[in-house]
TrEMBL record:
Keywords: Cell outer membrane, Ion transport, Membrane, Receptor, Signal, TonB box, Transmembrane, Transmembrane beta strand, Transport. PANTHER family: COLICIN I RECEPTOR-RELATED, TONB-DEPENDENT OUTER MEMBRANE RECEPTOR. SUPFAM superfamilies: Porins (SSF56935). The lineage of its organism: Bacteria, Pseudomonadati, Pseudomonadota, Betaproteobacteria, Burkholderiales. This is Vitamin B12 transporter. It is a multi-pass membrane protein. It comes from the Bacteria. It comes from Pseudoduganella namucuonensis.
Amino acid sequence: MTFPVPRHAALTSLALAIAAANAPANAQTTAIDSVIVTATRSAQLQRDVLSDVATITAEEIARSGAGSVVDLLQRQRGIEISRNGGPGTNSSVFIRGANSNQNVVLVDGVRIGSSTSGAANWSAIPLQSIDRIEIVYGPMSTLYGADAIGGVIQIFTKKGTGVPTVTAFAGAGSYNTREYDASVYGATGGEHSFSYALSAGREESDGFSSTKPGNFSYNGDDDGYYREGVTGQLGLQLARGHELGLIFLKSRTNAQFDSGTATTFDTHSVQKQENIALSSKNQILPFWHSTAQLSQSRDDSTSNPGTVSGYSRIDSKQQDFTWQNDFRLGEDTLQLLYGHRKEEVVSGTTPALGKERKTDSLAAAYNLKRGAHLASFSARNDDSSQYGSKVTGAAGYGYRVTNALRASASFGTSFRAPTFNELYYPGFGFAGNRPEKGRNAEASLQYDDGVTQLGATLYRNRLTDMLVSTTPCPKPGYTFGCAYNVNHVTLEGLTMTANRRFGAFNVSANADFQDPKDETTGKSLVRRAKRHGSAAVEYTAGALATGVELQASGSRFDDGANTRRLGGYTLLNLYATYQFARDWSVLARWNNATDKNYEVARTYATPGSSFFAGVRYGIK
């Protein structure tokens, strides 16, 4: 197996390893240990996690002044985005070159996403309630089942602790953008403690034209949006080690879009995301911890409500029950999991999509620690009423060369279930479509001495039975083509990251050298660059923090035939925060400061130079 990457990238990776191995010995005893949950479905120190992971903290979100979750993700290594216009419009998130529907998205353990498109509704997730975001790169089907080919993104909302705390924020900026939110957090003490965290917010903007001249649906008017949502977490400790929990999220986004020349009605879409989950966490024995969760996620999408022309509505619902048992065996952990998932789609405008399927899952994972040696093994079987039984497995090994330097390698299989559109949409879906399959191998070096963090990961993910739209369709009765298992794809590349603190300055950078290729045609995958990365310098002095960011991407193609090229771009962003009183702070952000004209989707507009400022009360 080979990993063809550019020669200069391979040399950079080698230099990283040499630099890490020759770092001062006294620096190797101060490794930073943050806690990661998503990589193993249980809390684990990051230094013991074999997967390639990244985290975005609440403090980073507050300083960034980002307008959406997609804006945050775009700055992370291994991630690219495509969006049909400004915030509030449809977005695709590619992890390591994988399609948007080849990634799993969770909010507090609740899986979100439409069963018809297979992708998450990113515009529905409110920023004000997010505590942190964890990104796990690479196949995770053995832990999360179908669709975890490129990776898993989990969003954790804030949890109540300590004395009652109130926070609030108000801001405004370019395109007449306005944001408001408020939250309350806290917990009671004692043996039967009760914790609570409630957040509500609204965001609105006049926006800009989502399309540009040359787009088939171009209309030069501004396309605004508004988003409002509430989230909450409640927890009740029944006894030491036994807790009941309730989490919920409700969000509604109303976004305008272009549909050609000016019309007598406002063309817009309304997307609703509703999550609710009940959980029970129980320390049954000192070495046995059990977590049971019953959840429902609903994705309701309506286009042009109140009109006849172009009206459509699709209601996608997922119900999940998971029972996870973690057994501590010395320094090792054995995990056993049972899951039941029901997907259901209701559509008054496309009755053929009105189907359901059920999946029962059994999984086992073992994480081992022996001195400098780390290892993990996992296997899973997903038995679906629609596509049958799928077995996946994974194994990884890591060796801690020093306290700060670790080398690791892993192999894993994965799959993606056909969406309801690919199965049942009239004139396009084919009920006999099979799941896509993936086989991934990767190797990495990670260095962290508490001051300097360096990382390099080389990966190759081979996908077969890829579902694509084929014309003509190999099945009779399909005039304009259909979704069918015909393609083979290879996702391979090198991801590098570096972070270093120099006194009051913090410098970070990441770069991706990748080649997401359709092996059937020999063409690059749509809207994915072979080179992309970002860099940032932040200066902190007391109550003031300022930063400069660069985001860069090489050229991409907007079509599978690779005839319509999207040019590369570099964006410059500036930001600053200042805490002017005990509980008060201000932030200002200037995005695309050079007013770069660029595209992430052909003839769809992106924001120009834009400014945003706000004031925050309370720190949580």
